Amino acid sequence: MINVGANSYALSDPLVLAAAGAGVLLLLIVVLLIATVRAAGRSARMAMPLSQQMQVLGQNVHQLGMGQAQLQGGLQTVSDTQAHAQAQMIQTVEVRLAHVQQQMQDRLADNAMRSQRALTEMQERMRETLHGSSKQTTTSLTQLQERLASIDKAQDNITKLSGDVLSLQDILSNKQTRGAFGEIQLTDIVSKALPRDSYQMQATLSNGRRADCLIHLPNPPGPIVIDSKFPLEAYEALRKAKTEWDLNEAAKAMRVAVKKHINDISTKYILEGETADGALMFLPSEAVYAELHANFPELVRAGFDARVWIVSPTTCMATLNTMRAILKDARMREQAGAIRTTLRQLHRDVEIVVERVDKLNLHFGQARKDLDGISTAAERAGKRAARLDNFDFEEIDETPSTVVPLTTPET
Question: What's the pTM?
Answer without folding.
Answer: 0.40
